[in-house]
Amino acid sequence: MVDFSEKIFSKINEIQNPSVVGLDPRAKTLPSCVLDEDPEKLDDEEKLKVLALGIERFNKEIIENIDGIVGIVKPNAAFYEALGEYGIKALKETCKFAKKKGFIVIADGKRNDIGSTAEAYAKGWFGELGFGKCVDALTVNPYLGFDTIKPFVHYLKKKSKGIFVLVKTSNPSSKDFQDLDVKIEEDGNKTKKLYEIVAEKTNEWIEVEGLEGEGGYSPIGAVVGATYPEELAILREKMPHSIFLIPGYGFQGGKAEDVALGFDENGYGAIVNSSRGIIYAYQKLDLPEEKFGEAAKIAAVNMRKDILSALEKHNRLPKGWKI
Amino acid sequence: MVDFSEKIFSKINEIQNPSVVGLDPRAKTLPSCVLDEDPEKLDDEEKLKVLALGIERFNKEIIENIDGIVGIVKPNAAFYEALGEYGIKALKETCKFAKKKGFIVIADGKRNDIGSTAEAYAKGWFGELGFGKCVDALTVNPYLGFDTIKPFVHYLKKKSKGIFVLVKTSNPSSKDFQDLDVKIEEDGNKTKKLYEIVAEKTNEWIEVEGLEGEGGYSPIGAVVGATYPEELAILREKMPHSIFLIPGYGFQGGKAEDVALGFDENGYGAIVNSSRGIIYAYQKLDLPEEKFGEAAKIAAVNMRKDILSALEKHNRLPKGWKI
Fold first, then answer.
1. What is the rounded distance in angstroms from the CA atom of residue A252 to the CA atom of residue A225?
2. 8 A C-beta contact, residue B143 and residue A142
3. What is the strand order of the sheet A187-193 is part of?
């Protein structure tokens, strides 16, 4: 069986691009060209249907335009869930479409629960009856400890699936808890940041479960924000078996220079997400809204160039890749 | 506008019972009487439909049976999400049905995200277009800090909604991170557990946002497991404005004696959840599966008696309540 990390690297190499496009369409700001009717003129139920179908169309056009440039998409569950059952259907259709085109699909759900409930999440996202046929990986929140992670391990080992554990997130208030100084038992004076402990513990789980693949990476990755480059460099050392999913590039202020520190010496080990910077690029490029797909393509090409240039500058451009 | 905490207390007083029934039906173990066909004989799509409809029927019968005994239900999103769009529809129908009967509905989603994504969750669960008409409260994970909480505040202030922040969860591995010793800046030698810091910070957010209601409680509650009675007592002191949602009673080993410590001196400030202990009571009571509703009623009556007796023993039975 192919390990999830090998799947990622094979895809990244195929297109020479570690970018991820976040498919986070906001119902409120959808280009009107993807909507069959003006939602404001409809009753609630019809509005949900029209918006969900609009989101599905929007995503498909983005996917078609970035096909061959980007190899990974990451829909965030929140935007689909907000439209109830219609949104979930749009999410499924989006994932199916991306999968058919050969994309790797990461569901950004930040799910977390315990025992048989965590099992239900694992089954729902990775099982054949749920999203298993069209989703490759899921983001998970570690606050509840290993009980949250354990039910996924079966799917990592047997079904080539992956999870990304939230370690240090890109938002300003990630400091509220993630940056707390935790006392280390062995030495009364020394402390570590909570995100460091989460990183070490995650690495421990990978080793205990024997998940390090032949290439050293495992199907348990980590979410580390581009907005904290210093932490990114520290965590790169602490988590040798984890591919980093780096959000925060672009709209949130993270630069290619910053994310370069999340890659290993060979230029692997990280994937970089941009959502609004790509899917709403028509706004920034001052193009008419019907050109949102074309604009996404331009932005995706620019993002690839930006990141690859930073990797080259840091002497981390993978062998054989051309900018 | 009625504050969420007042809504809870008014409901609890009406039926003299602080119990919550967790509507966590597992597709695999549904009584066959709620299924139109044998799911194993169907293709994937039809199987999902039959299971989701089965779950909806199962829930409605439970709700009808506990009506008048229990006033709060808590469906966990994982079990619905596992059945895709059909499951989400079943969740919505369940919530609508419970709401119509006068129940308070807590969606156990443990959701968490940042910025505009957290806004999408808030809108999805509390907005009119989403679950807003049938869901009163949502559980949220605090690992990402206040950015996760902030988008909900509008709905707490203006729409009588509530959230429950995960503080100390009922599972064994909650110790992995929640029990870590965090160094407190002011004093180099003193430490606090991470869950204590989360508790204090949550309390701070309540005060900063001016959310303490007239009765002292606020719409921001906390999830604290029945399986950790000592922590429950400590946290009761630290979080004077938070109603505790206490999972872990029954199936997970928490006793009425233990949960009593989560209540304030007047016998308020906590609600106690049981899921499997109620909805699958027919198994424990050795009743035929068609009697699952009746069995749930018996178990709910017993649970009420059990908890009220423990409150009485601790001199915390609310004034006027009769066991």
1. 10
2. yes
3. A187-193, A181-184, B181-184, B187-193
Q: Which residue from A176, A178, A95 is spatially nearest to A141, judged by alpha carbons?
A: A178
Nearest CB neighbour to B182, from listed A142, A169, A180: A180
Query: What's residue B107's pLDDT?
Result: 98
- Residue A248, pLDDT > 90, answer no
Q: Angle at Cα B79 formed by Cα B74 and Cα B82, nearest 5°?
A: 150
- Cβ within 8 Å, pair A182-B178: no
**Contact criterion met (CB < 8 Å) for B178 and A143:** yes
The ipTM is: 0.97
Q: What are B162-206's pLDDT values in tens digits?
A: 999 999 999 999 999 999 999 987 666 789 999 999 999 999 999
Whether A157 contacts B127, CB under 8 Å:
no
Whether B124 sits inside 8 A of A172 (CB atoms) is no
- The pLDDT score that the predictor gives to residue A187 is 61
What does the DSSP assignment read for A136-178? Answer: -EEEE--TT-HHHHHHHHHHHHHS--EEEEEEE-SSGGGHHHH
pLDDT tens digit sequence for A67-115: 999 999 999 999 999 999 999 999 999 999 999 999 999 999 999 999 8
Region label for A108, one of left (φ > 0), alpha (ψ between -120 and 50) or beta (otherwise): beta
B88 with A88: Cβ contact below 8 A: yes
Task: Please give the structure tokens belonging to residue B226.
Answer: 């029945």
Mean pLDDT, chain B, whole residue set: 95
- Active-site residue (options: A110, A157, A159, A255): A110
Q: Express each pLDDT in B99-111 by its tens digit.
A: 999 999 999 999 9
**For B272, which DSSP code?**
E
The SS3 assignment for A69 reads coil
Q: What is the domain class of B4-30+39-313 according to CATH?
A: alpha beta
Look at residue B187 in the predicted model and tell me its pLDDT. 61
- Please identify, in words, the CATH class of the domain defined by A4-28+41-313: alpha beta
Closest CA to B88 of B46, B44, B128, B51: B51
Domain ranges of chain B: 4-30+39-313
Statement: the pTM of the whole predicted model exceeds 0.90: yes
Q: How many CB atoms lie within 10 A of CB B158?
A: 10
**From the CA of B65, how many Å to the nearest CA of chain A?**
24
Distance (Å, rounded) from C-alpha A318 to C-alpha A115?
A: 41
Closest chain A residue to B90 measured between Cα atoms? Answer: A85
User: For A109, phi and psi rounded to 5 degrees?
Assistant: -110, -20
For B205, the closest chain A residue by CA position comes to A176
Taking Cα atoms as reference points, which of B54, B42, B99, B43 lies closest to residue B79? B54
B169, A144 in Cβ contact below 8 A? Answer: yes
